[in-house]
Design goal:
Blueprint: H1 6-25, E1 30-34, E2 42-48, H2 58-71, E3 81-84, H3 88-100, E4 104-109, H4 114-122, E5 126-130, H5 136-146, E6 150-151, H6 154-161, H7 170-177, E7 188-192, H8 197-208, E8 214-220, H9 224-231, E9 263-267, H10 269-283, H11 289-307, E10 312-318, H12 332-337, H13 343-355
Parallel strand pairs: 2-10, 3-4, 3-6, 4-5, 7-8, 7-10, 8-9
Antiparallel strand pairs: 1-2
Length: 366
């Protein structure tokens, strides 16, 4: 690798300044209270990551990945930035690439929602499609090598690019915003995994700060994370692919750190989408299906806490807005075409609204 010239150092310094200036212009994200049916004593909060400039939790990751690559000398003024993504990370990375005046290519499954494709292209990125999510890694490496560019590789670097000790990361923000709440130290934080970076950051932070908070990862069906964690191995691969965009992977990604997780729950796709729609109606705004995955797992967890006589707070994430999925998860025709029947879970949630009790899925005919 050639030595970094003075001009390159100056360009990198300016690039870092631009990224940090963007951070300073962006206020912290909101923490919403979700009013739940049933008896008081357990409070649910949503950390609203959809208000980032690029509209999702992945804005934090993209910013960290760009800073990491810049400080490592991997990105230069003539670099083409390439990423393997299911959509939201690519939207955010396209934003930062344009901020630095760099070309950006997203390698992603052809099933990615057209709304995300439109956003990537609006930010100046180019979309390169593969048939299956398992193909994105090798294709991204090939495209980067072909163009003499840099493959960001979020699935490897997500857990190390973010400062998990603090420095305004998502975990530190949650605890600061919870300080005046009835139960300021969450009993549980519930997240889903796409790279594993968020669960690694939060899990490390609560241990570092010696909080009793436990971390639960909600994983959609078809994803390898739950199977790998349950078996205590990282060599699990899945033939199916997750239908919940942004989370779930066909393999256990290098950034997934199972040792910082206290529990996992596998969430059926129909439950994720039914909960997405239920929460959208409850909040008066549209949320995405990964948020539905998080909230379904959180509701099941809260039900277990209530039956155990526990009180406390549970925090989970609103990952992105539902407007990105108008042609998919909010489209009944799309659901029917993919064989997803959300009606049984919608009935469970209707009963929850009426009685304040979330019956286990096995209590009704699914």
């Amino acid at each position: 690798m050639p030595k970094t010239s003075t001009e390159d150092r100056e360009w990198i310094a300016e690039a870092i300044r631009r990224v940090e200036a963007d951070t300073n212009r962006s206020a912290d994200t909101h923490l919403h209270v979700v009013n739940l049916p049933g008896p008081p004593g357990i409070d649910l909060y949503l950390k609203d990551e959809s208000v980032h400039p690029t509209g999702s939790l992945k804005h934090r990751l993209a910013r960290s990945l760009f800073l990491y690559a810049l400080c490592n000398g991997w990105i230069h003024r003539d670099s083409t930035v390439v990423e393997a993504s299911s959509g939201s990370t690519a939207v955010s990375e396209a934003y930062f690439a344009r901020l630095l005046g760099l070309p950006f290519i997203a390698v992603m499954p052809e099933a990615t929602s057209k709304e995300k494709v439109t956003l990537i292209e609006w930010h100046g990125g180019h979309c390169h499609f593969v048939k299956r999510s398992s193909e994105v890694y090798d294709e991204a490496r090939r495209v980067a090598a072909e163009r003499g560019g840099h493959y960001m590789d979020q699935f490897t670097y997500a857990e190390r690019a973010t400062d998990w000790r603090g420095n305004n990361n998502i975990a530190e923000s949650i605890f600061e915003q919870m300080a005046a709440e009835p139960h300021p130290v969450p009993s549980w934080i519930v997240v889903s995994a796409g790279t594993g970076g968020t669960s690694a950051t939060i899990g490390r932070y609560v241990r570092y700060r010696r909080h009793p908070t436990r971390v639960l990862v909600a994983d959609p069906e078809g994803s390898a994370f739950y199977q790998g964690w349950s078996r205590g191995t990282s060599d699990v691969t899945m033939s199916a692919q997750s239908r919940i965009e942004g989370i779930g992977r066909p393999r256990v990604e290098p950034s997934f750190v199972g040792g910082v997780i206290d529990d996992m729950e596998q969430v059926p796709d129909a439950a994720s989408i039914a909960t997405m729609r239920w929460l959208s109606a409850r909040m008066g705004r549209m949320v995405g299906a990964s948020t539905g995955t998080n909230v379904w797992a959180a509701l099941c967890l809260i039900e277990r806490m209530r039956h155990a006589g526990e009180q406390g707070s549970v925090v989970t994430l609103l990952c992105d807005a539902g407007e990105r999925y108008l042609s998919t998860y909010f489209d009944d025709g799309w659901l029917a075409g993919h064989g997803i029947d959300i009606a049984p879970y919608a009935r469970l949630l209707d009963a929850y609204d009426a009685t304040g009790e979330l019956l286990p899925a096995t209590a009704v005919r699914l």
